[in-house]
Amino acid sequence: MPKLTINGQAVDVPAGTNLIEAARKIGVEVPHYCYHPALSIAGQCRLCMVDVEKTPRPTIACNTLAADGMAVWTETDRVKETRKSIMEFHLINHPLDCPVCDQAGECGLQIYYMKHGLYDPRMRDEKVHKPKAVPLGAHVILDAERCILCSRCVRFCDEVTGTGELGIFSRGDESEIGLFPGKELANKYSGNVVDICPVGALTDRDFRFAVRVWYLDSATSICPGCARGCNIEVHVNRRRPHHNDGRRVARLKPRFNADVNRWWICDDGRYGFAFVDDTSRLVIPRWSRDGALGDATWEEAIAAVAGALQRFAPDEIGVVASPKMANEDLWALRRILESRGIRRVAFRVPPRTPGDEDTLLIRRDKNPNSLGAELLGLEGDGAAILAAARARQVKCLWVFGHDLLASAWPVTETDAALRALELLIFTGPSANATSERAHFTLPAAAWVEREGTYTNFEGRVQRFRQAVQPLGQALPEWDILGRVLRALGVEAGATRAERWFRELASGVPAFTGLTYQSIGDGGAALSAPPGGGAAGSHLVSGHPPMGPGSRSPLP
Amino acid sequence: MTAPTVAFSEAQLAEVRRLQGLYPDGRAALLPALHLAQETFGHISLEVEEYVARLFDLTPAHVHEVVTFYTLFFREPKGRHVVAVCHNLSCHLAGAPEIVAHVRRRLGVDVGETTDDGRVTLQSVECLCACEHAPMMQVDDRYELDLTPEKVDRILEGLR
Asked: H/E/C letters for each residue in A525-536?
């Protein structure tokens, strides 16, 4: 453990720590562009110069390892002068187009110029011009004039995705990043190069010009796109609703979690939020009967559902819960099932096309909470429930979120099952072919419109927070289910997600001891992690086993 | 990927493997391999870059980086002669811009282009380490020093 001083303050760091990280440890920021903790050292931007005692001139902190007895100074006059000169070099050919640049407000050049530059430019020559607005792929667009050639994006594609699409071509002041002619930036993590680009060279085609970043609000959340549960921030546009066509969710950004996703998220997750503000959202409880349909109040809808749960015998009721529901929702559902003695329950609906998977983040299971649903005891045979519906043993079916008609189950059989039902209830955020067939649709809040927790495939329970209000009259599932419980005459006091979680934590052994506080923003492991042979035994075919055997440490 | 229409002979492939074996990291042999490719195929097309990338287990982008970095790699068919005028600091101060303008006028091509008759390719390049004789240029394998427009005319006339 090298012991050194930085600006006179003593600090101990593990061997192999560079001076940027050592300084970070005591809250000292060494400005830098090319250094990124996930990538190899390039030493390209030269901005992280610091003075190290007994060395003749400033040295780059990113490529200098902390050593015992080292005395480092990050704010000497010489260092400040060096930084200022380097900023001037970086900006020689950089266009002054901040007013039309999408990076403005979160730009490394703007921030560091104000902090470390503040010089009067001395350049009299014409700036070098390079290609602008060049689409690199479906998600990323390049402005080569704004690039400072830090090579983070190049190293990301070399070292994280291993796809190596990007390079720095030509040399001198003609150098520019780009793709091999005719190729595309088409890897599944391409959006991350926008995040790590410190300037406006690489911007996001989806977010570009949608809303200025200083109008965005942010909530910490979890990506619901697969069983990994990558930590994210949801950036929402509440303050300028007339921008961006009223789309409230502006973008998703990865949030660092060393144990889950490090700095990254995949493109499917990053751009998977469009449904939140889509016209396919369900926003009002509705009924439909013999071709007629209409709106209902929540009171009417809840009374109708509770009435049905009492009218049909428990064995005549089937429930297809969803692994996209939060633990809190599933617990409230379990309370209903227990109170009515309903046993025909399942939550897995095999997708028509099996999901993709890789060794970085992407999981084949495209649901955020399959393990939670499993631990809450909702495992069952969905196909058998539909078979029972066709045999008119199940007369009332309650489906959460799924489109059963778009699953791997034969459409004709599913269709026959839905046709045979006396009552189909659908609860979910968005309309689909199954909800179109429902006699009652109860609109559920999307994940960004509510609080809750998911349990990822490794048994990490993670919280997501509310970023925007539910659309229309939509409610979180736990709220809908709590109302049904009360209509059934069952005591259900919880009126907040956190109270449902508290109840769940005392009722399900795996969750014992967990609270919203202990989960925090980083998540917490289940007290009894998933495993044992049992987990794999009642999986619906088409899903890989998700026990500890399939755990893969992040690269 | 389509089947390559450019390919080294067995002997050339053996040479590439020998070069790769000389260095701790085989990629160090990329430069000599590219020279070999240029001698063989005349110039380094994108197809050649992709072919060489496969030989080195690199992505085409990384071979493209190397090829675009060096002025001695030709990405288009080059002329029978190559005239490379230095435009770096010493030559610039000693009048390289006028020399480049003069050659352009005389040859009727821009920097980076080849005359219609395929006689001369004109380049403007970084320092060639002959600052004491600035302005200077390289013509094929020769250095031409202390240039004046008259001297340039004589040199160009000698190129057939």
From this structure: ECCCCCCCCHHH
pLDDT at A537: 31
Provide the Cα torsion B132, B137, B142, B143; round to 10°.
-10
Positions of chain A with pLDDT lower than 50, given as ranges: 532-555
pLDDT of residue A541: 30
Mean pLDDT of chain B: 94
Statement to judge: residues A252 and A399 lie in one domain: no
Judge if A265 and A293 occupy the same domain.
no
Q: Is residue A549 part of a domain?
A: no
User: Touching check for A171 and chain B: CB below 8 Å?
Assistant: yes
Q: Are residues A399 and A453 in the same domain?
A: yes
Q: For residue A42, what are the domain limits?
A: 3-80
Two tokens at A146? 């704004």
Residues A190 and A317 in one domain: no
- Mark whether A259 and A316 lie in a shared domain: no
CB contact under 8 A, B61 and A164: yes
> Mapping DSSP to helix (H, G, I), strand (E, B) and coil, where does residue A250 land?
strand
Give pTM, 2 decimals. 0.90
Chain A residues touching B2 at Cβ < 8 A: none
Instruction: Tell if the CB–CB gap between B61 and A183 is shorter than 8 Å.
Output: yes
Measured between CA atoms, how close is A208 to chain B, in angstroms? 26
Query: For residue A242, is it within any domain?
Result: yes
Q: Which residues of A touch B62 (CB under 8 A)?
A: 164, 167
CB pairs under 8 A between A and B: 37
Tokens of B80: 């029978």
Chain B: residue nearest A169 by CA?
B65
Q: Sort out which chain B residues have CB atoms less than 8 A from A180's CB and list them.
A: 46, 49-50, 59-61, 64
The answer to whether residues A322 and A428 touch, using CB atoms and an 8 Å cutoff, is yes
Comparing CA positions, the residue from A465, A457, A454 lying closest to residue A554 is: A457
A146 and A65 in one domain?
Answer: no
A555 belongs to a structural domain: no
**Which residues of chain A are within 8 Å of residue B72 when distances are taken between CB atoms?**
none
Residues A328 and A406 in one domain: yes
Distance from CA of A137 to the nearest CA of B (A): 15
**Phi, psi (degrees; rounded to nearest 5) at A423:** -145, 130
Q: Which of B64, B67, B86, B92 to mutate to test the interface with A (most CBs of A within 10 A)?
A: B64
Please answer whether residues A103 and A200 qualify as being in contact, where contact means their C-beta atoms are separated by less than 8 angstroms.
yes
Domains, in order of start, for chain B: 10-69 (1.10.10), 81-157 (3.40.30.10)
A258-286: burial string, b at 16+ Cβ within 10 Å, e else: eebbbbbbbbbbbbbbeebbeeebbebbb
Mutate to test the interface with B, among A130, A180, A184, A193 (most CBs of B within 10 A): A180
Q: How far apart are CA B41 and CA B67, in angstroms?
A: 14
**Four-residue CA torsion sign, A334, A335, A337, A338:** positive
Contacts of A183 in chain B (CB under 8 A): 60-61
Write the pLDDT tens digit of every residue in A497-549.
Answer: 999 999 999 999 999 999 999 999 999 999 765 554 333 333 233 333 333 33
Strands, E assignment, B58-110:
81-86
A92 located within any domain: no
Which residue in the set A165, A170, A171 is minimally distant from B61, CB to CB? A165
| Sheet with A460-464, side-by-side order of all strands | A452-455, A460-464, A524-525
Tokens coding A325: 């529901």
Instruction: State whether A243 and A291 are in the same domain.
Output: no
